[in-house]
Amino acid sequence: MKKRAVLLALLAFVIATVAGCQKDDDNNSSSGEKEFELLAGTFSVYDESPNAFGHAGDHLSSQNELDFFVGNSFFNQNWVMFGASTTARDGLGPTFNARSCSGCHFKDGRGRLPDYFGETTSGFLVRLSVPGEGDDGSPLPEPIYGDQFQNQSIQDSVPYEGSVRISFETVTGQYPDGTAYSLRKPVCSFEGLAFGPMDPNTLTSIRVANQMIGMGLLDAIPEADLLAYVDETDADGDGVSGRPNYVWNIAENTQTLGRFGWKANMPDVLQQVAGAFHGDIGITSYLFPSNNCPDPQNSCQGAALDSLGPEIDDDDLQKVVLYSSTLAVPVRRNYKDDDVVAGRKLFKKAGCISCHVETFTTGTHPTIPELSNIEIHPYTDLLLHDMGEGLSDNRPDYLATGLEWRTPPLWGVGLIEVVNGHSTFLHDGRARNLEEAILWHGGEAQNAKDYFMQLNATKRSQIIAFLNSL
Ligand code: HEC
Ligand code: HEC
After folding, report:
1. Of 44, 107, 50, 36, nearest to 334 (Cα)?
2. Other Cβ atoms within 10 Å of 133 Cβ, number
3. Which sign, positive or negative, has the C-alpha torsion 272, 275, 280, 281?
4. Domain annotation covers residue 18
5. Is residue 326 within 8 Å of 370, Cβ to Cβ?
6. Sign of the dihedral through C-alpha 121, 124, 129, 134
7. Distance, CA 460 to ligand 1 centroid (Å)?
8. Fewer CB atoms < 10 Å away: N or C end of the chain?
9. CB 444 within 8 A of CB 404
């Protein structure tokens, strides 16, 4: 008996020591990293393949899982022109930018600028407006070409609006350690304008398609938690202000907080998705019942057939909204590597987290309970920041000035190359890699960029290693 007690005591000691070791282990250089492996709690997914962005979050109800797959097919399949066949997927155009959502959000990922003049779809578009704003605060559409340039149409009898040519200006600079760099800035011009010249005061904004992950979680961050980061007068003196955009919410018939789009110009996933159907593919819905055919575009109006009712019905639209809301966020890779751990510390020290906020907890999602009460690490505050002249598009979007952009979430940035075969970043895809994306930061982010620039090459690469782990 006594022998057994000793043995038990010994065993207990061994277990305690092992447990103690494990605890010690947690206290080494990667301490506290574990909780940041899962960027979206139970909505994270283990996949680092080219399909990494295409998974439904775990724990969806079986009905939602079914709807996710229907939504997925609506997202991926090409729409066809009205009457072309007996299908629920007709109504394309009359003018449009792409035939499917995935034409731009390829593999639920990121668009880029065209590789050559005339490439039809690479995942970018050009927003248009003239100075001033509508009654609802929205940008005033260009009178002939509307609020977005459509470079395709359903048939010869309906002219497409023209073609966009992208050219680049070069901007050079130097790190304090003498290392030189060269950046490219895209400039767009229009060719073959079908309805004559645009208003001479036309404002343009080139935008690439964002990766589609974690959208419903961003939708579910309580408004008060986002507004807690607003500091319009920079009262805390850190050089970073941050302010909310308020945009017209069609379903609620009032202004609400903007969360989506590069200038937070869309209030929620529903309106973003319905707006994409309308503006990008030419599919009407109950939120956008008339096709996008500005007044002089008569043949477009003739082919629009708006009186037949929405081209996507409410139920199917909801399924694409569900799909767009519930794409899971890939877990981080190499998050315990020394360089990555060091990079995360430098990211904080540089003040990147003043805008790329690490942690939020979602509130109650109004329609998808599975998205509620999840701790997430999206690295965004969803607020607008003045990013300096270098990034300005000179085109206001609701309250956002030309200088202001929404902090984009950084989850997934390390996988864009794997998923999309390119590594271009920022609203117009000008940055050819993550380093260039940082070098374009200015305005409120000037201090953070300066901090990055004065680091030695090893430390700079640690920040990049951290970003690549996201
Ligand atoms: C022509 C290319 C194109 C097509 C087609 C397209 N999108 Fe997009 N998408 C974009 C661009 C560009 C943005 C950013 C818009 C902005 O900043 O105004 C965007 C933004 C989004 C966002 C918000 C992303 C964020 O981080 O804020 C969602 C969600 C989205 N699109 C869903 C869809 C869905 C669903 C479809 C199909 C109905 C679709 N998109 C079709 C180009 C496209
Ligand atoms: C003042 C707020 C602010 C600070 C500080 C800031 N950023 Fe950003 N960041 C932004 C905004 C806004 C954008 C989008 C700009 C654009 O697209 O024109 C952005 C874009 C990015 C992108 C590209 C993301 C994408 O999806 O294309 C990366 C990478 C990035 N930031 C990393 C950093 C790093 C690293 C730091 C610190 C050295 C930092 N940021 C500091 C606001 C900030």
Report:
1. 36
2. 14
3. positive
4. no
5. yes
6. positive
7. 32
8. N
9. no
The structure tokens 């007068």 sit at 233
**298: containing domain:** 34-468
- What is the 303 CA–ligand 1 centroid distance (Å)? 25
Give whole-number Cα distances, 384 to 229, 265, 464, in Å: 11, 10, 24
pLDDT value, residue 221: 98
pLDDT, tens digit, 9 for 90 and up, residues 110-140: 999 998 998 888 999 999 999 999 999 999 9
Closest ligand 1 atom to Cα of 260: 27
Distance from residue 69's CA to the centre of ligand 1 (Å)? 19
* Residue-level pLDDT at 30: 53
Tell me which residue of 106, 31, 39, 30 sits closest to 469, measured CA to CA.
39
Number of domains present in the structure of the chain: 1
Q: Is residue 1 part of a domain?
A: no
Pull the structure tokens for residue 17. Answer: 């020591």
Question: Is the residue at 9 inside a domain?
Answer: no
Instruction: Name the stretches of the chain with pLDDT < 70.
Output: 1-31, 84-86
| The residue to which tokens 């979206």 are assigned | 40
What residues does ligand 2 touch, defined as CB less than 6 Å away?
240, 262, 347, 350-352, 354-356, 385, 387, 391, 405, 407-408, 410, 413, 425-427, 434, 437-438, 441, 444-445, 448-449, 452, 463, 467
Q: What count of other Cβ atoms lies within 10 Å of the Cβ of residue 399?
A: 19
pLDDT at 281 (0 to 100): 97
Torsion angle of the four alpha carbons 71, 74, 77, 78, in this order, in degrees rounded to the nearest 10: -160
Tokens of 433: 């890699």
Dihedral sign, Cα of residue 27, residue 32, residue 34, residue 37: negative
| Predicted local confidence at residue 133, as pLDDT | 95
Residue 353's CB: how many other CB atoms inside 10 A?
Answer: 16
Amino acid identity of residue 142, one-letter, is E
pTM for the whole thing? 0.93
Nearest CA to ligand 2 atom 43: 355
Ligand nearest to the CA of 463: 2
